């Protein structure tokens, strides 16, 4: 098997040394072909070595990791961001479907990211992912506005406010959108529950995640939720009180 060629880009030498050590210990099928400490040197090393993967810091002297990506476009390698961002920024990464590792880097997370990279060399949608990430990170109220949903046929950039509900469909999740359209994406409902739960979504049933803004009424006797698109969603008994509390709280904040 051909070794995975990696370039480490970080302005702190101790971080690069740590990553080199972890990769040597836990991912022997990779080879680090170069290191760089800023945008200029990173650009030069990437063009010279044509890596499979770049582990990339975001804040660096002479520009950001995002600026480096745009400078090198089109991209033909996998990028994994390595940074020490706060909770909101990490949420933005998730919405944008961008791979990332938090400092200090956990060996298990590093191995998972590299395994994923080795089986999926970067595709042409990276710039769309980056644009989505930057848009979400720049929102004033620190709530991501868009989510990137990938199907077999296309990559969809969807406004969070347009999602009425999500429905489990075996190993897929169906996103039902305002306007009577839907998108079927690979991935379990659990994954999207984790991403959307802080953005006004609530899992009313093991197979259903709903946007609280689209709830029309709750039928307490029948344990059902009626949505704006006229869909009737089952409500788990144990979720009823919590849902009512959340809606009451939102109404007071409005």
Provide key terms for this protein.
five-stranded antiparallel beta sheet; 8 helices; five-stranded parallel beta sheet; elongated; 31% strand; 254 residues; 35% helix; single chain; 2 domains; OB fold (Dihydrolipoamide Acetyltransferase, E2P); 17 strands; alpha/beta; Rossmann fold
Which helices and strands appear, and what pairs or packs with what?
Blueprint: E1 4-9, H1 13-26, E2 30-36, H2 39-49, E3 53-56, E4 59-60, E5 63-64, H3 65-72, E6 78-83, H4 87-95, E7 100-102, H5 107-119, H6 126-137, E8 146-150, E9 155-159, E10 163-169, E11 172-177, E12 181-186, H7 189-196, E13 201-205, E14 208-211, E15 215-219, E16 224-227, E17 232-234, H8 240-253
Parallel strand pairs: 1-2, 1-3, 3-6, 6-7
Antiparallel strand pairs: 4-5, 8-9, 10-11, 10-14, 11-12, 13-14, 15-16, 16-17
**What is the N-to-C order of secondary-structure elements (H for helix, E for strand)?**
EHEHEEEHEHEHHEEEEEHEEEEEH
**Gyration radius from CA atoms, angstroms:** 21 Å
Largest sheet: 5 strands, parallel
How far apart lie the N and C ends?
57 Å
DSSP E strands, number: 17
Low confidence ranges = none
CATH homologous superfamily descriptor of the largest domain: Response regulator
How confident is the prediction overall: mean pLDDT? 88
Adjacency order of strands in the biggest sheet = 2-1-3-6-7
In the CATH scheme, the class of the largest domain would be: Alpha Beta
